[in-house]
């Protein structure tokens, strides 16, 4: 049997080896994760950029077999859908956030609301699609941009509520007291002082929600349905960018694949801008000047 | 100009904590009244009862009567209306960070719907002059944000903001405790001037400050008001032993 | 009285009647402006303000209306979730009236081929087992791939990473979590699937179906032509779905794990190091042990996301309503079958059956997400901080 000092030395060499092995594995995991993900990004950028041209933004898809064309109807359609969605998601979301931060702090109702918002957030987008289909499309008898906008709007609510509440809670209590001390009614204080102070953060929350639903396809499959032509009619089916990407991706035509890549690049660009803006605002400190 | 305050049998609770017990106090008009006492004795709570800010805490409760002028602020009026007549300056300056100096000072007017542009300009200037801040900021009124001033300047701006709504009473909760000595003495001078226009109640930890500034002083201890008399008497010949112990520094 | 009192200089009380003018003589302090000059019009202006404010009223109505409006917004969230649940239940009742609970596990047998027949819209046969199978298998594969990698990345970024890399890495993670499903699907169709088909799967096939292996391990049923990598190699199928799901849930698991690991107080790390532990031992004992509940929570949250993923899966899973052991076989998940067949559903029963699948998905994701949130919350105690 080796003497104790030698055994200890062996044991510590083994421990050092294990430590190095663990480090190596962690680094390996990171490389294995980062490299392919970076590769995806670069591939998307490359394939998308080479397919992107002016026609993409201004023309609608050409009939099958013809080359060229673009996704103008999808871009406009997404704009319409997101407009409707924001009209629904932002006010309700901000209202919910204001309630949680200013009126319901600590109450059981507030906890229940927060929990339910989380539940809503976790609902698979396809399930949201069929629910809105049942509620609106089925009853109206036709697919519509309105139904698609409602589905997307509902999906925005949990994110906007959560971020609004977080941002409002960060406004120092002293500022609220200053407003109330001047005899400003509570509603005015909440809107003109508290919400205004927190507005950079609240706006970025809305941006995040916006970017998230901009890329959603599943809820639109049976609500907005899609449309080959340009349309802004809320009562008719409408095309959307992610929907068009999906349809082109699974089609057998190379030309449409090319357009799908370009569309994907546009979507990615939107996401990157949104995420970067959010990080920028967060890093600058949401409340400039307030201590 | 200012009005007097009559406090009768005031009791206040935070939840189960009986913070103020049977306070009776006549606060004279157009005078400065100081409230002194050790930490946690209830003087801040008392002052917050005078403009119903105590109620913003959901577990707060108040009984008794506070009459400002001729109305009972709890029975005959609402918190919002009272706070326009009774202004408050807080311990730490709390300017509105998204507003310029000009907007900060007139915020009490604007947010209550006052739209007279020309009159507002005059009121802002007057309030800043009364707060001894005009000369330092008159060129940057709309350019600088309220939060970009120094601590002492911010507090004077908060005083200007409180003055702009022309209150009848001005409550000051340790207004200079977060400031340097130079700013402190500027603010004390201010108070000395302002008390001719308004009734001032100032909570202070600093006995010398009370002595410098106020005609009447009340000594609070453990939620009760032990003694209330002219400042001169409190500091030279207090009636209650506890007051004397506090003044001479035996505790607190 | 004692000495300190005499030190206090007391101002003589002044008469309060007339406004004082000019500067204070004693303290050499402030000079007042127009107010002290006795000009009548400023005083009139002041009391105009006072009159204006006195006339304003107490806004009690506006305040309660505002409160009511905000509460309505908050409560509407309840209404929305309730509506969704109700609609799903009502619209699927045709299906659960007809098939009952066996919807989820029964199957017919095709008289011609003697093979199990699950989903036959033409003949009105709707059993959902293949979709449960597809969802489970693809999610399981995704977890098997994603969890070790995500934890490895989280460990690296929290404990080992040099400071300058932290920002870019966390930015990348956020970005990748935000990429839409359909974009991942697009990449999967044109890059991942050919990659699997031509380079990755042949390796597995060579290993799993080698005669030697079959002879040794044939008894497990996992090797050979009838095993995990048997059958035709299309590239599409359960494995492809599992891989793309893994890529999609990796950022979530990694960043949540990072958050729970960061929530472990530094004092724990220091205690372990002070006892002479190596860095890995410190991580294992002080951080991972303390954070394990939260890590489990983030894994379950990743699972929750994987269960509900639709588009990317629909684009690579092959879209057949069958059950096969092989990972190379095509199939369907609960979400992808709905995406594929709903808009062209051939009958009300067909649609009802699809909605019933949607209802099941809804319930399962609520349970899974709720449980996961509970675990993560228990560790980080409320709103997670934005840690770089």
Could you provide a short overview of the structure?
The complex is a heterotrimer of chains A (291), B (252) and C (388). Chain B is α/β, with parallel strands linked by helices and 252 residues long. Helix content of chain B is 36%, strand content 25%.
- Helical fraction of chain C: 55-70%
Which regions of chain B have little confidence, pLDDT < 50, spanning 5+ residues? none
Structural class of chain C: mainly alpha
Summarize the helix and strand pattern of chain B as letters. EEEHEEHEHHHHHEHEHEEHH
- Shape label of chain B: globular
Provide the β-strand percentage band of chain C.
under 5%
Terminal Cα separation of chain C, in Å? Answer: 62 Å
Q: Would you report the number of β strands of chain B?
A: 10
Q: What CATH first level of one domain in chain B would be assigned?
A: Alpha Beta
What's the CATH first level of chain C? Mainly Alpha
Strand order of the largest sheet of chain C: 1-2
Cα gyration radius of chain C (Å): 34 Å
How do the strands and helices of this protein lay out in sequence?
The complex is a heterotrimer of chains A (291), B (252) and C (388).
Chain A: H1 4-51, H2 54-58, H3 72-103, H4 108-122, H5 125-140, H6 145-169, H7 173-181, H8 186-214, H9 241-249, H10 254-284
Helix pairs in contact in A: 1-10, 3-6, 3-8, 3-9, 4-6, 5-6, 6-8, 7-8, 8-10, 9-10
Chain B: E1 5-14, E2 17-27, E3 32-36, H1 43-50, E4 60-68, E5 71-72, H2 79-85, E6 86-89, H3 101-105, H4 107-110, H5 117-130, H6 134-137, H7 151-164, E7 169-173, H8 181-194, E8 199-203, H9 207-213, E9 216-221, E10 224-230, H10 231-236, H11 241-247
Parallel strand pairs in B: 3-8, 3-9, 6-7, 7-8
Antiparallel strand pairs in B: 1-2, 1-4, 4-5, 9-10
Helix pairs in contact in B: 5-7, 7-8
Chain C: H1 3-7, H2 40-54, H3 60-91, H4 93-99, E1 108-109, E2 116-117, E3 119-120, E4 125-126, H5 129-160, H6 163-178, H7 181-208, H8 211-217, H9 238-263, H10 266-274, H11 279-308, H12 311-316, H13 334-341, H14 348-380
Antiparallel strand pairs in C: 1-2, 3-4
